Amino acid sequence: MRVTLRDVAERAGVSPMTVSRVINNSPRVQADTRRRVEAAIIELEYVPNRLARGLIRRKTGTLALLVPDLANPFFTLIVQAAEDVAWRAGYHVILCDTRAELEREREYIEDMVEFQVEGVLVAPVSDRSRSNLRILGRSNTPYVLIDRSIAGFEADLVQGDSVAGARRLVEHLIELDHRRIAMITEIPEISTARERLRGYRDALQTAAIEQRPEYVVEASAVDPRGGYEAALHLLDLEQPPTAIFAVNNIVAAGVVEAARERGLEIPGDLALVCFDDIEHVSRLYPFLTVMAQPAETFGSLAAQLLLDRIAGRVRERRRVVVLPADFIVRRSSGAEQEAAVIG
User: Fold this and answer.
1) Torsion of CA 233, 238, 243, 244, to 10 degrees
2) Is the backbone of residue 58 left (phi > 0), alpha (psi -120 to 50) or beta?
3) CATH code 1.10.260.40 for 5-48
4) CATH (residue range 58-160+295-323)
5) Are 121 and 146 in contact (CB under 8 A)?
6) Average pLDDT per run of 10 along the chain, which is 343 residues long?
7) What is the pTM of this model?
């Protein structure tokens, strides 16, 4: 049976209130009494109910972190960095994988408010997360958005420059003499998808290249399967693209599989570029030309912004941090220079 605070009090010959004071480091306990209580705690192997103490003091020492896809290495790195900052500040993190489902995201947020977490870090599912985030606003729970913004929604935000990054990737393909350039994207309700599509179109327009609607395909899912199906659709067109820009590295993995199935060589028959970088894969076999975002910095900065907001160190209504990405050229785009880092 679980040892209770009352069990410790009986063993030490004191009141439960005295045990509580010892656990909370109150100065209102004599030294010999403190020693008896501490000895009883050790002897009984008592573990204080941290959550219950936090609810009483209105400080639970916990933060929540919601991401739409924990299997995506980009979000995994964000989680690790944010948790590290929180840990050093004395906070524990409750991790919630929303699986890109609005209802799941809503239930997690409602649970976190009920648990009285002191703040929330969230990469929203989409623009439709607006109503879910209002729950945090009504409960006065501080929160920071990561990676994805929501149109017309005021909140602290850490994001990448998706427009500029996408533009540079497509410009790179144009510099390699590609004119039939396709893009595999996500649903337009996700801000990063909109911004990367905008960068793609900006690059084509600047180069006076025709923008063909059939060359923009929305993946059925942001995973290798979705990338595979979208790539097969593009490759089966009467005039298939000679290059594909994938919205992220997971989708790009599906493009590679589709090209292999069609007997195409990357980059000989099909050039490929994408956002984000899978570190372990790139170490083993440098291949994908990418716009590598500093995922760890996303997480650490967002966590610090949240801690500042919790501590009342912030006066601004909204703070937005836009992080640049590294353009890394490797074999998949067909450039002569391999594994070169540009800018």
Assistant:
1) -20
2) left
3) yes
4) 3.40.50.2300
5) yes
6) 85 89 81 91 78 57 95 94 96 96 95 91 96 93 96 90 98 97 97 97 98 96 95 97 96 95 95 87 72 97 96 87 95 69 42
7) 0.81
